[in-house]
Specification:
single chain, mainly beta, lipopolysaccharide transport protein A fold, 14-stranded antiparallel beta sheet, eight-stranded antiparallel beta sheet, 22 strands, 13% helix, disordered N terminus
Length: 376
């Protein structure tokens, strides 16, 4: 019996493996395309630096740069400042850290080495060494990386060039949103060209899971807007014994600076298609709200008391196959400093929240609506 059953088990396993492989490739393509159709690049252009005596400001445009270092000297004949060890260069909300800097006041060119770190409003650029022109706001970093706080993107390349006030070229580029040295997924390209508030291009791009290439696209064009954009969000994958394999593809709609909505299709191999929508608004820090709705025609038959429970959580029968969850929260400013609060939930059955409360996406995959509404 074991011998006769073995081929059948292998057939089942191989069929499952083929389906999983196909699923990963389809979702990989969707992820690769959606990322490059909505991926915003917030590349900072604060690559200017200036030098002076131990703590002295030199004028650069309207705002002065300030420098501190363990050792600082000035060559009057060449018109250059030399700063060594623990060099810190600051200007308003920008700061540059390095171990060696040379600034030519005649040409406006600064050269830094021994490691470079530039911080601007939470965004961080690091690299091995770099050269910058303060007058033209152009520069280059070798073995550079960029962390964009707004959307939690990591971008790195063997060479990062700032070719103009808002244009960049990145060689051997890698993009991901995962933390750590070994991200779960990456998108790589031989060359990325970006124009802020315009468009970017990627040559020889590939979507990878770990180090495994899943999808190759020879050439891509994507918008590089710094404001919220409507479009597809990155798909999400999941698996559980209760729901089976899961794929969720959200669509984000930036209605206005104060309102947005997200719609999604969530496929679960054991349960069917769940559809959902979310609407958010904000009028002020104390007047804001969110409304969410999910609905599913469950493939799993209604549960009788004698059936038991997949989660061993409820002994009661469930007779409905149409299952839903409507919930909302709102704060509203009222006169004389009073704030009214509303929190409501309406659910189809006693098991829904235990089975489907955890969603594959949430606020973290989209921009902060409150911060966006306060931007000029």
């Amino acid at each position: 019996m074991t011998v006769n059953g073995y081929p059948e088990i292998m057939k089942t396993f191989m069929a499952f493996a083929v389906k999983i492989s196909l699923l990963f490739r389809i979702v990989g393509l969707a992820l690769c395309l959606s990322l490059f159709f909505i991926l915003p690049f917030f590349v900072q252009d604060g690559m200017a630096l200036d030098l002076s005596n131990k703590k002295k400001a030199l004028e650069s445009d309207d705002t002065p740069w300030e420098i501190t270092a363990d050792s600082l000297s000035y060559n009057e004949r060449e018109g250059t400042y030399h700063a060594q060890k623990n060099v810190v260069i600051k200007k308003t909300n920008q700061a540059l850290y390095t171990q060696s800097a040379v600034f030519n006041t005649k040409t406006g060119i600064a050269t830094v080495s021994g490691g470079v770190r530039i911080e601007t409003d939470g965004d961080i650029i690091t690299g091995k060494e770099g050269t910058f022109n303060l007058n033209t706001q152009t520069g280059e970093i070798i073995d550079g990386s960029l962390f964009m706080k707004a959307n939690h993107y990591y971008l790195s390349g063997s060479q990062m060039q700032k070719t103009g006030e808002s244009t960049y070229v990145i060689k051997d580029c890698t993009i991901t949103t995962c933390d750590g040295e070994n991200p779960d997924w990456t998108i790589t390209g031989s060359e990325v060209r970006v124009a802020i508030e315009g468009y970017g291009t990627v040559k020889h791009s590939a979507f990878r899971i770990r180090d495994l290439p899943i999808v190759y696209v020879p050439y891509m064009i994507f918008p590089a807007k710094t404001k919220r954009q409507s479009g597809l969000l990155p798909p999400k994958l999941g698996y559980s014994t209760l729901n089976g394999a899961e794929v969720q593809i959200p669509f984000y709609w930036a209605i206005s600076d104060q309102t947005d909505a997200t719609f999604y299709q969530r496929y679960m191999s054991k349960r069917g298609y769940m559809q959902g929508a979310e609407f958010r608004y904000i009028e002020s820090p104390n007047s804001k709200g969110i409304l969410e709705f999910d609905i599913l025609s469950d493939k799993e038959h209604p549960k009788n008391m004698s059936d038991g429970d997949a989660l061993d959580i409820s002994p009661y029968a469930r007779t409905n196959q149409t299952r839903y969850w409507l919930r909302g929260r709102a704060d509203q400013d009222l006169p004389i400093g009073v704030v009214a609060r509303l929190d409501g939930d309406f659910v189809s059955d006693q098991d829904y929240l235990r089975e489907f409360e955890e969603k594959l996406f949430g606020f973290e995959v989209r921009s902060n609506l409150q911060e966006e509404s306060l931007r000029p």
